[in-house]
Amino acid sequence: MISIVGVGHCCQDFLCVVENYPPEDGSTHITQINTQGGGAVATAMVAASRLGIKTAYIGNLGEDSIGDTILDEFKREGVDVSCVTRLPNVQSLSSYVMINPANGTRTKFPFRGNIPPIVWDGQKKEMLRQAKVLHLDGTNYENAVNAAKLAKEYGVTVSLDGCSRQQDNDKNKFLASMVDILIMNAVYPTAVSGKATIEESLLEISTWGPKIVMSTAGRDGVYAVIDNSVYHFKAYEAKVVDTTGAGDVFHGAFLAAYVRGKSLNECIGIAQLTAAIKCEQIGGRTGITDWQTVENKYMSLTGTRL
After folding, report:
1. What is the pLDDT of residue 303?
2. What is the Cβ-side half-sphere exposure of residue 231, based on CA atoms within 13 angstroms?
3. Which of 128, 220, 256, 299 has its CA 20 to 30 A from that of 153?
4. What is the CA radius of gyration of the chain?
5. How far is the C-alpha of 233 from the C-alpha of 224, rounded, in Å?
6. Cα 111 to the chain's mean position, in Å?
């Protein structure tokens, strides 16, 4: 039985470590090149799978070499791809990521592509119907809304990675109102809510419908609404090499803990720790660890056994 189904951004990342990030029309040297799967929802599914949860990805890929590579990696990671549709004359998505080793930051150049929306046939609907959680991002708004509507009809918990925004903010608000778990990046809450501070923004968004509302803020940790108040969770220490995919891994780890029945505080701690471990290696997926490693480290840091 699939526990988490993902519908959202899926691509192949080309990761380039640069000597420094140059100004526009400038130049620098690439010192290292790596390639691995990427995309917000796709990487979250890989993270949850490595943490011992059965996951699946529903979406479209082109009948091209990048699509072959993406699919092969999903299969190696144990992510079910039986509801991935390959399309002729369509170019699978890729993203070029420039990593500054001085501080571990990354600058992304994603290819938008021409992949059409998902056609929800009987097989895809049945996979979603049997899942515990649907995880989305807003990269393709039509796909996200259609999937969320089906999930609500089936009684499936809906999770949204609040990262990609539509120009029409009413669309952002509508999608946010459809979900049960809304975990956003540092920019999304104030941009979508129109409020001045992260605290005001999270409290406002928590009135729109989501049961769990929080924001990840990198080194500044996590802000979460609990009992109508905003609580701050400090970040775990990490020797940061690359932050690519840290938020995606956070989502996958949070949902892995959630479907295991962990408390909200435990879900946040597990997600923070898994993302911190990831940041110690290059790429969104290389540093993703397993449940036993996270469990042992969590206990050593908190004194609490999961």
Report:
1. 80
2. 11
3. 256
4. 18
5. 8
6. 18
Task: List strands edge to edge, sheet with 229-233.
Answer: 55-57, 4-7, 133-137, 157-162, 181-184, 212-216, 222-226, 229-233
**Strand pairing report for 229-233 and 222-226:** antiparallel
User: Where exactly are the structural domains of the chain?
Assistant: 4-24+31-302
Q: Where are the alpha helices (DSSP H) in 102-232?
A: 122-130, 141-154, 169-177, 188-193, 198-205
Amino acid at 115: I
Residue 281: partners with Cβ closer than 8 Å, 6 or more residues away: 241, 242, 287
55 forms bridges with which residues in the sheet? 4
DSSP codes, 104-137: TEEEEEE----PPPPP--HHHHHHHHH-SEEEEE
Confirm if 14 and 96 have CB atoms less than 8 A apart. Answer: yes
CATH superfamily entry for domain 4-24+31-302: Ribokinase (3.40.1190.20)
pLDDT in tens, 266-289: 999 999 999 999 999 988 899 999
